UniProtKB/TrEMBL annotation:
Name the record gives this protein: Uncharacterized protein
Native source organism of the sequence: Petrotoga miotherma DSM 10691
Top-level taxon: Bacteria
């Protein structure tokens, strides 16, 4: 259910515009008509007023901003996103409405706006001259107060650092999440540049707030530098058992990372593990890059290096090259294998492998891509047997028209799939009209979908 305060917000925006600046209105309206023949016995026709988006941009003395009015299939007009910034000397005040804009700029990006979600509220940015700069958010998240401070201290003796503080109430008064952090980067010497971050997290109630750091902290640290043409980077991430990750990227995990490069050669190693009483080793990912060649080896382990799991380990070799010959402009070839078996007589027992070839072409203003794969050509969830994949697409622009078509055929031992898609788009001064047949999502739709349709889009 959408917030009933939307009309009030809209009125405030209009009043603000009258007093502070001029309006530049733009947006888009999209209408789709579709005739679906997928059901052999009963074809269906439907129309979908997919969306109507109005983007208002405001420009004036000390003011910039935009908001988006959206009308979807529910036939309700609502503000899907809004942001206004009032610029003063060394100070910016930003207002948010249903906007994903809360994040930090520390080493680990420990506060991720996708995890925080859409918010309503205020952000204050202050340039404090010789005292650094500050971002402070006071916003509403899911009906409760969310505060975030990210203060970047002034650089001193080649040391750059920042502090962050977060407090997010889980309900009206008693429970809250709290997070405190500090990051640093010492750039005094080119050869050795230490850096790191310490973050503490809590899930508290007001009456029994405790600041014990036992099992609710994160440590990140490393060193990087340049020694002539050689560059290196080494770091480690340790996350205690009770550290709260609800605001952080999904990629945040315990690991040891080492990277080195010399001219056109680069080697990276990422050891994924679980620090604890007994360190548990999960996977070692190694990438070697030499010009256009990439070698990837990923060893799977079950606790220690001696517990090597062959069936879960991976290896691939990929080579890509740009070309300047007629017809073919570039190509890529790769071989991938997971696990290894001595006995291939039982076809259902082999572990996935793939031989992959891809090329891009450009001939007589026709452009496209061709692919061939043997082994496991698509995801194991969609296609579970040995097979081959053939794919090709072609496109060309003709003044006010553009045309595109693509086909895909998968030949398996048991399964066979064919699909195709085509579209013609006519461009008008303020939009386009697209006629299409089939479904173009080949990653998820392996069989041809019997449908035709037209999508009209107008921009203003």
């Amino acid at each position: 259910m959408r917030n009933k305060k939307t009309p009030l917000i809209f009125l405030m925006i209009v009043i603000t515009t009258v007093f502070f600046g001029s309006v530049n209105l733009n947006g888009s309206v999209e209408l789709n008509l579709n005739y679906d023949l997928s059901d052999e016995e009963e074809a269906s026709f439907y129309d979908s007023f997919n969306k109507a988006d109005l983007y208002f941009k405001f420009f004036g003395e000390g003011l910039r901003g935009e908001f988006n009015l959206n009308k979807d299939s529910s036939d309700q007009l609502w503000v899907s996103s809004s942001e206004f910034t009032y610029e003063l000397e060394n100070l910016d005040l930003t207002t948010y409405w249903n906007r994903k804009s809360v994040s930090t700029d520390d080493w680990l990006k420990i506060i991720n706006n996708e995890k925080v979600g859409s918010v309503n509220g205020l952000k204050l940015y202050a340039d404090l001259d010789n005292f650094g700069n500050m971002n402070f958010y006071a916003v509403d998240k899911s009906g409760y107060l969310f505060n975030l401070l990210n203060y970047r201290l002034p650089e001193l003796g080649g040391v750059n650092s920042s502090v962050l503080y977060l407090k997010d109430y889980k309900n009206e008064s008693s429970d809250y999440y709290e997070m405190m952090g500090f990051d640093f980067n010492v750039g005094t010497f080119e050869g050795v540049k230490p850096y790191g971050e310490v973050v503490l997290s809590y899930q508290q109630d007001v009456e029994n707030a405790s600041y014990s750091i036992e099992d609710n902290y994160l440590l990140f640290g490393g060193v990087r530098g340049e020694l002539g043409q050689f560059e290196y980077n080494f770091n480690t991430t340790y996350i205690s058992d009770d550290f709260y990750r609800g605001y952080s990227p999904d990629s945040l995990m315990e690991n040891i990372y080492l990277e080195g490069s010399y001219n056109d050669i680069r080697l990276t190693n990422k050891l994924e593990l679980d620090f604890g009483t007994e360190t548990y080793i999960d996977r070692l990912r190694t990438n070697l890059y030499i010009d256009n060649l990439e070698l990837y080896v990923s060893g799977d382990f079950d606790g220690t290096f001696s517990d090597f799991v062959m069936d879960g380990s991976e290896m691939s070799i990929t080579y890509s090259q740009d070309l300047s010959i007629p017809f073919l402009t570039s190509y890529k070839a790769s071989i991938y294998k997971r696990g290894w078996e001595d006995d291939w007589s039982e076809i259902t027992s082999y572990k996935p492998f793939r031989l992959y070839l891809e090329g891009n072409y450009d001939l007589f203003d026709f452009k496209g891509n061709i692919k061939y794969a043997f082994g496991n050509p698509v995801s194991e969830e969609s296609f579970q047997s040995l097979g081959e994949l053939y794919y090709a697409d072609i496109s060309r622009n003709f003044d006010q028209f553009s045309a595109m078509a693509k086909v895909q055929y998968i030949q398996g031992i048991i399964e066979k799939y064919f699909t195709a898609y085509g579209e013609i788009t006519y461009y008008v001064p303020k939009g386009n009209i697209k006629f299409y047949i089939g479904n173009g999502d080949f990653d998820n739709v392996l069989s041809f979908k019997k449908q035709i349709g037209v999508t009209t889009t107008f921009n203003f």
